[in-house]
Amino acid sequence: MTDPVFTGGERAPTGVEVAAWIRQRIRRGSFAPGQRLIEVDIIRQTGASRFKVREAFQRLEGEGLVETEEFRGASVRSASIDEVRQIYRARIALEGICAADFTRKASAEQIAKLERLQDELDACVTENAPERFGRLNLEWHALLVEGAENDVIRQLLERLNVPIHRLLFESFYSPNRLKHANADHHRILRAIKAGDADGAEAAMRAHVGNGFSTLSNISDEFFG
After folding, report:
1. How far apart are CA 133 and CA 69, in angstroms?
2. In contact, 84 and 163? CB cutoff 8 Å
3. For a tag site, which of 18, 31, 120, 216 has the least CB within 10 Å?
4. Which CDD domains does this one have (predicted)?
5. Which stretches of the chain drop beneath a pLDDT of 70?
6. What is the structure's pLDDT at 8?
7. pTM value?
8. pLDDT on residue 161
C-alpha cells in the first residue's frame, strides 16, 4: 500500500490492511522502537476509520509488535537484546528444519526460483544495495519456508521475525555483512542442489547464528 492507502472514491482499508501498512513501516524503520503511533496521522495517511486503526493496533499488539499504555496510546514495542537472543535461538532450530525439508521436498521450479533470487542477491552485493538485499533476503528465506511445507513453523517464524525487522535495514546490512550473509546463502544453496538435507540444515543454522553475532555487535541504541 502507498501513501495514502486509498484515495477518492475507493473503499476504506480494513483493519488487516492498516495493520499490514504499519507493520511494513516498522520493518523498514519508518516507525522506530518506542515511537508513538498517532491515530490521527495514520487515519490521514491511510484513509482508514478510527475504529479500523484501533483494530490494527490490537492485531499488532497480539503479534508483539505494538504495545498500548493507558493515557499514552500505542507505540512500537522495543526488543531487548535478551529477547532477540531468544528469537534467534528459536530461528536457528526452525529455519534449520525448513532448509532440510526444502531439500527433501522442493520442486525443480522452486529450486530454480531460489537460484534466480540468489543471482539477484549477488548483484546487490556487487552494487552495494543493502535495502534491496534485505527485501530479497526475506523472499529467499520465505521461499525455503514455503517449500518446507510446514504451516506450523511458517506461522511461528512470522511471529519471531517481526521485532527485529527494523535492524535488517540499518547497520545489520553493512557491505561486509552483505558479503558474509551472501556466502552463507551460497553454502545453503549448494547443499540443497546436492540433495544434502543434513548439510543444508547445518549451513542454515550457522547462517542464522551468524546473524545474531552481527546483531550482538550493533549499538545498544537499537534495543530497549
Report:
1. 35
2. yes
3. 216
4. WHTH_GntR
5. 1-10, 161-173, 217-224
6. 43
7. 0.71
8. 65
**Distance linking the first and last C-alpha atoms of the chain:** 29
**Do 11 and 51 form a contact (C-beta atoms < 8 A)?**
no
- For residues 158 and 177, the answer to whether their CB atoms sit within 8 Å is no
What local confidence, expressed as pLDDT, does residue 80 receive?
Answer: 75
Among candidate residues 119, 208, 134, the one with its CA nearest the CA of residue 171: 134
Q: What is the DSSP secondary structure assignment for residue 158, as one 8-state letter?
A: H
**Buried residues in 50-75 as b, exposed as e (16+ CB within 10 A):** eebbbbbbebbeeeebbbeeeeeebb
What domains are defined for the chain? 15-76 (1.10.10.10), 81-222 (1.20.120.530)
CA dist., res. 67 & res. 173, Å (int): 27
pLDDT score of 54: 95
Cβ-proximal residues to 177 (8 Å cutoff; 6+ apart), any chain: 214
Amino acid at 98: C
pLDDT attached to residue 222: 54
Residue at grid coordinates 472514491: 9
